[in-house]
């Protein structure tokens, strides 16, 4: 399943967020971050995870990583089935 994570007002380097997500999901996917971009309104990361991961559990793990980086409040996680 694809998760788009949109950031508005990101206070850390996007690469640091990407690295933390890669580390979190390394056991499930060799390349979990499949895309990234920056625009005038902010930036985003695309996270592709195996379909056998339970969506709620995956979102909780994403939220935990973002909270540890103190960027959860500027992020929106959008599941893209």
What does this structure look like?
This protein is of the alpha+beta class and 81 residues long. The chain has one domain (2-80): Alpha-Beta Plaits, CATH 3.30.70. Helices cover 31% and strands 32% of the residues. The chain is built from two helices and four strands, in the order βαββαβ. It has helices at 14-24, 55-68; strands at 2-7, 33-39, 42-48, 75-80. A four-stranded antiparallel beta sheet has the order 2-3-1-4, covered by helices on one side. Helix 1 (14-24) crosses helix 2 (55-68). It is globular and about 35 Å long. The model has no long low-confidence stretch (mean pLDDT 94).
Strand and helix map with partners:
Elements (H helix, E strand, L loop, with lengths): L1 E6 L6 H11 L8 E7 L2 E7 L6 H14 L6 E6 L1
Provide the number of structural domains: 1
State which percent range the strand residues make up.
Answer: 25-35%
Provide mean pLDDT, rounded. Answer: 94
Spatial ordering of strands, largest sheet: 2-3-1-4
**Shape estimate:** globular
Summarize the biggest pleated sheet: 4 strands, antiparallel
Helix % is 25-40%
Number of H- or I-type helical stretches: 2
CATH architecture: 2-Layer Sandwich
Question: Within the CATH hierarchy, at the fold level, what is the topology?
Answer: Alpha-Beta Plaits
- Low-pLDDT stretches are none
SSE string: EHEEHE
User: What's the alpha carbon Rg, rounded to whole Å?
Assistant: 12 Å
- Strand tally is 4
User: First CA to last CA: what distance?
Assistant: 6 Å
The secondary structure category is alpha+beta
Q: In CATH's first tier, which class applies?
A: Alpha Beta
């Amino acid at each position: 399943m694809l998760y788009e994570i949109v950031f508005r007002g990101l206070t850390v380097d996007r690469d640091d967020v990407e690295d933390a997500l890669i580390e979190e999901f390394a056991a499930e996917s060799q390349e979990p971050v499949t895309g990234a971009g920056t625009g005038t309104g902010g930036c985003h990361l695309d996270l592709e995870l195996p379909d056998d991961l339970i969506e709620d559990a995956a979102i909780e793990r994403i939220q935990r990583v973002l909270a540890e980086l103190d960027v959860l409040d500027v992020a929106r996680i959008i599941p893209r089935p």
